[in-house]
């Protein structure tokens, strides 16, 4: 009896778990599109692009020094987990006047992990506000061009989020001041969009081999 129980634990349970999660990907394999055709950030800063990237997009504002905690939360809970995925990037939009503060932040991020996929775009106040408004969310930037919320933008420059969030209904962004929200909601949604692209890639490869 004991031997049978051990065999069940070792072989049957992993199979059941796999089938459960596999069905979850099939049933929840699409993260809703909330805004289509977000303009490319390269219109503001040619050194970066949203095209062909799964992007976590944020707006740190003028006081980058004061918002480092947000970046560190994001780095620990999201970036470290997903940075090895191809075409994944973090992109923070910052006023041109804050370049020195960004360099300091970049150095500190590099001490925590390899921050090569942390990118920063610099623009004028008007450019940043105009770009943010094109996301067409229910959120706003403050007077310093800052919001604690970050956004998931897919490779085709579509803003992804939730249409049936249990707390907000339509959920455009994720609050980086809340570790619980990053853990319990954003991590799940990033997993979904990455799984979506992986499944599409497998399908394309399978079609080519026929």
Describe this structure in words.
It comes from Flagellimonas iocasae. InterPro entries: Thioredoxin-like_sf. This is Alkyl hydroperoxide reductase subunit C/ Thiol specific antioxidant domain-containing protein. The protein has 210 residues and is an alpha+beta fold. Helices cover 45% and strands 20% of the residues. Strands 1, 2, 3, 4, 5, 6 and 9 form a 7-stranded mixed β-sheet that branches. The chain has a two-stranded antiparallel sheet with strand order 7-8. Helix 2 runs parallel beside helix 5 (179-209). The model is unreliable at 15-28 (pLDDT under 50).
Q: Round the mean pLDDT to the nearest integer and report it.
A: 88
Which CATH class applies here?
A: Alpha Beta
Largest sheet: 7 strands, mixed
CATH level 3 topology: Glutaredoxin
Q: Count the helices. How many?
A: 5
Q: In angstroms, what is the radius of gyration?
A: 19 Å
- Class inferred from helices and paired strands: alpha+beta
N-to-C SSE string, H for helix and E for strand:
HEEHEHEHEEEEEH
Number of strands: 9
- The end-to-end span amounts to 47 Å
Unreliable stretches:
15-28
Please tell me the total number of domains: 1
CATH homologous superfamily classification: Glutaredoxin
**Given the C-alpha coordinates, what overall shape results?**
globular
Q: What is the CATH architecture assignment?
A: 3-Layer(aba) Sandwich
Beta percentage is: 15-25%
Proportion of helical residues: 40-55%
């Amino acid at each position: 009896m004991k031997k049978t129980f051990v065999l069940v634990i070792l072989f049957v349970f992993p199979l059941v778990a796999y089938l459960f999660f596999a069905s979850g990907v099939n049933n929840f394999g699409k993260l809703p599109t909330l805004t289509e055709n977000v303009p490319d950030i390269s219109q503001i800063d040619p050194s970066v692009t949203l095209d062909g990237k799964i992007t976590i997009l944020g707006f740190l504002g003028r006081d980058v020094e004061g918002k480092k905690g947000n970046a560190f939360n994001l780095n620990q809970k999201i970036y470290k987990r997903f940075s090895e995925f191809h075409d994944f990037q973090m992109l923070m939009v910052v006023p041109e006047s804050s370049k020195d503060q960004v360099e300091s932040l970049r150095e500190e991020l590099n001490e925590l992990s390899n921050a090569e996929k942390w990118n920063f775009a610099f623009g004028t106040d008007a450019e940043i506000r105009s770009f943010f408004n094109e996301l067409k969310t229910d959120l706003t930037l403050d007077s310093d061009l800052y919001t604690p919320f970050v956004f998931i933008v897919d490779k085709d420059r579509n803003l992804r989020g939730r249409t049936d969030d249990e707390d907000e209904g339509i959920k455009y962004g994720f609050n980086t001041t809340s570790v619980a929200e990053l853990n319990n909601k954003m991590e799940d949604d990033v997993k979904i969009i990455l799984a979506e692209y992986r499944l599409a890639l497998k399908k394309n490869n399978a079609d080519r081999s026929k």
